[in-house]
Specification:
The structure is a single chain. With 297 residues, this protein is of the alpha/beta class. It folds into two domains: 6-37 and 153-289, Rossmann fold (3-Layer(aba) Sandwich), CATH 3.40.50; 41-141, Rossmann fold (3-Layer(aba) Sandwich). It contains ten helices and ten strands. The strands form two sheets. The protein has a six-stranded mixed beta sheet, sandwiched between helices. Strands 5-4-3-6 form a four-stranded parallel beta sheet. Helix 3 (70-82) links the parallel strand 3 and strand 4. The protein binds pyridoxal-5'-phosphate. Pyridoxal-5'-phosphate binds at residues 40-42, 70-71, 140, 169-176, 250, 253-254, 281-283. Residues 40-42, 70-71, 140, 169-176, 250, 253-254, 281-283 line the site of pyridoxal-5'-phosphate.
Length: 297
């Protein structure tokens, strides 16, 4: 397996009539190009966790996630690459047929343990640290090390100070927190929650970003029914967006982000002259949960 390569990141302009009409410029930061599996924000979020594990002499990483989790498969691949054993605690009963994501995780040498949804919520802590050589990465990489890693993302944008808005999708909010702490005081961070009614998100972001005076603008209106839920309208938007820009997106995060930003632009929520940086945080592997042919990319 090749190592992730942040020098592959590009900043691609989004040239669509809507933005031209509204006097907005926008570009997509293509973190998805870093690596096919340790992709997007996961590469950045994992960095300091793995570094701490190494420095404290741990050789076994344990983490948590669902059957299509970008975090699980990225962790499995990173552990293979950097020489850690890994265990993934997976939400839900062991399926008869494994998802493509879990098959990949197994191929990278991750040991999988399945917990019913109920046990996952209430008992997963009982699976912590079977030995002193284990290092736990919280579910979704939520935590200070994750945010510190995400704060380094903006180093890959040469003209970062020219952007008025930095826009990203949020699951746990770790990436949002990192971007908040790395951004300029005058830049706005727009964060699109992909969970339904996650009112915790604001608090979760603040507790990692360390700056209560610089809030993110959070959209709770573009979750399309909730985490990993998607509609025909979202899928056809993703295909249209690809036709117009040649930028692929994923059904869980970046499709909802791009949809949200276009929707907000339509509603004049960005003043003319705004310059938007949309973070493509990766996750394309998750599209394999769709029937073949649903997406044109
Ligand atoms: C994990 C992930 C996110 C969410 O990141 P958080 O730090 O949990 O908010 C966004 N986009 C993609 C593609 C992801 O895989």
């Amino acid at each position: 397996m090749t190592a992730p390569d942040p020098s592959l990141v590009s900043t691609d302009p989004v040239l669509i009539p809507l933005f031209a009409e509204k006097g907005i410029r926008a570009s997509v930061l293509r973190l998805d190009k870093i690596h096919p599996v340790i992709s997007g924000n996961k590469f950045f979020k994992l960095h300091f966790y793995l570094e701490e594990a190494k420095q404290t002499g741990k050789d076994h990483i344990i983490t948590y996630g669902g059957a299509w989790s970008n975090h699980i498969v990225a962790t499995a691949a990173a552990c293979r690459l950097y020489g850690f054993r890994s265990t993934g605690i997976i939400r839900g009963e062991e399926p008869a047929v494994f998802s493509a994501t879990l098959k990949d995780a197994l191929d990278y040498g991750m040991r999988l343990e399945f917990l019913s949804r109920e046990d996952f919520t209430t008992r997963k802590r009982a699976y912590l640290s079977p030995s002193g050589s284990s290092y736990i990465i919280p579910e979704g990489g939520y935590g200070l090390h994750g945010a510190r890693g995400a704060a380094t993302i903006l180093q890959y944008v040469p003209d970062i100070s020219t952007y008025t808005h930095i826009c990203c999708a949020a699951g746990t909010g770790t990436m949002t927190a990192g971007l908040l702490s790395a951004s300029d005081r005058i830049q706005k961070i727009v964060s699109v929650s992909v969970l339904k009614n996650n009112q915790q998100l604001d608090t979760d972001i603040r507790s990692l970003s360390g700056d209560a005076n610089k809030p993110a603008l959070i959209s709770h209106d573009h979750h399309f029914g909730g985490y990993a839920k998607h509609t025909a309208a979202l899928l056809s938007f993703m295909n249209d967006f690809f036709r117009q820009t040649t930028i692929p997106s994923d059904i869980v995060y970046t499709g909802k982000l791009f949809y949200a930003i276009l929707d907000m632009a339509k509603k004049d929520q960005f003043v003319p002259g705004s310059k938007l940086l949309l973070i493509h945080s990766g996750g394309l592997q998750g599209n394999r949960s769709l029937n073949k042919g649903t997406l044109i990319f």
